[in-house]
Write a structure and sequence with these properties.
- The protein has 55 residues and is mainly beta.
- It has a domain at 1-38.
- It is built from one helix and three strands.
- It has one helix spanning 10-14; strands spanning 21-24, 27-30, 33-36.
- The two termini are 23 Å apart.
Length: 55
């Protein structure tokens, strides 16, 4: 897996303008690669500090 260049924006490293970018309700297709997207169905009523760091 290639590493990112910290001197360039992520969008400049990820998006390849020679391939079509297609977006639909279930995800994103970039050339021959598919990325599935998810959304939050429900937020908890309460959250403790630091819970986002837990796995």
């Amino acid at each position: 897996m290639p590493e990112c260049d910290p001197d360039r924006l992520i969008r400049e490293q990820f998006i390849d303008l020679t391939h079509a970018l297609e977006v639909d309700a279930k995800g994103i297709t970039l050339g021959t690669h598919r990325a599935q997207t998810f959304s939050v169905k429900r937020f908890p009523d309460r959250i403790a500090f630091g819970m986002a760091a837990r796995r």
